[in-house]
Design brief:
single chain; Four Helix Bundle (Hemerythrin (Met), subunit A); mainly alpha; Tetracycline Repressor, domain 2; 16 helices; 2 domains
């Protein structure tokens, strides 16, 4: 890919010179689903069910779990779709995002349709959670959408290297939604789980941004790896990793000794990998870092941690 910006048509955000896509029902449906970023939603939902199990100290009703998962999917899909609508200009300049629907499908879905789809998903999430769970869960889901769209996407992403630190809070709301769906309240354990994901997000995303540093620079997005040296970035990754592990241990009084033992082991694994990346960058001057190892490990880490939360909530053993 050359460094020159890709020319886009005004109405569809597609590369000039390419024919418009056929607007078949299948193509439209595929594009609408892709706008929601399903792979990101999967990770968000991985944190929701274990949180509900911990809040219940057992199994909530199947109906409530399904309502919360579907409502959470709609809410996350709404935020992601509106993000794709707003960021379609810079998505066209970045290799990592150049295949997103408003860029690569040459008009299968128009920007106005994408925006309407995002708003409809948000409305659906609000009504489903409010009517079938409770209005606190619905309000928290709405807060996540608004935070992701207005604070991260519109205010911070193109302006501040702290964009993902602050804006990443939007991805922490599913644990609050899950807890509120069960208890109609937000308690200390939910806030601790929020903090865990909040502190996990920078190491996770900065590792990805190190890999795609040139992409972000091309789009003039000031992600930390664009504006800071690799050594400075990995130093912050290590610091946030320690804070994250400390936050996981703050859940110990609520989750029991089985969870605590697993959190210590998983945390040590994560810290070793964070230090490995930092040492590597210091040794070679940051010329050839391999951050995607930490990125993929971070996904496995968060998944395993919340699996342990679920197991500890269900088993009769493992509690203090």
């Amino acid at each position: 890919m050359t460094s020159a910006p890709m020319a886009l048509t005004a109405e569809a955000g597609r590369p000039t010179g390419q024919p418009p896509a056929r607007r078949t029902p299948q193509a439209v449906a595929s594009a609408l689903i892709a706008l929601t970023k399903p792979r990101i939603i999967e990770l968000l939902l991985v944190t929701t069910v274990p949180t509900m199990l911990l809040a219940q100290h057992g199994l909530p009703s199947l109906k409530l779990v399904l309502v919360t998962l579907i409502g959470g999917t709609f809410a996350a899909g709404s935020a992601n779709t509106i993000n794709c609508y707003i960021d379609r200009d810079i998505d066209a300049l970045m290799k990592r995002t150049s295949r997103r629907p408003l860029v690569n499908q040459q008009g299968a879905v128009k920007p106005a349709e994408a925006l309407a789809w995002g708003i409809a998903l948000g409305a659906g999430a609000t009504l489903l959670l409010g009517l079938e769970a409770n209005w606190l869960a619905a309000a928290l889901a709405d807060a996540a959408i608004l935070f992701y769209v207005f604070v991260y996407t519109l205010l911070l992403k193109r302006r501040s290297p702290s964009n993902i630190v602050i804006g990443g809070a939007a991805g922490c709301f599913p644990v609050l939604v899950g807890w509120a769906a069960v208890t109609d309240a937000v308690s200390v354990p939910a806030i601790v789980l929020f903090a865990v994901i909040f502190l996990w997000t920078p190491p996770h995303f900065w590792a990805l941004a190190m890999k795609f540093k040139e992409d972000y620079a091309r789009a003039n997005v000031p992600m930390l790896p664009v504006v800071a040296s690799p050594v400075a970035v990995t130093r912050k990754i290590v610091l946030y990793s320690y804070a994250m592990v400390a936050a996981t241990l703050a859940l110990a009084p609520y989750a029991g000794w089985l969870y605590t033992a697993a959190a210590v082991g998983l945390g040590g694994w994560f810290l070793l990998e964070a230090h490995r990346l930092h040492r590597q960058v210091r040794a070679d001057g940051g010329d050839k870092p391999f951050p995607m190892r930490l990125f993929h490990l971070s996904i496995a880490y968060l998944t395993l941690l919340f699996v342990v939360v679920a197991v500890a909530a269900l088993l009769p053993v493992g509690r203090w």
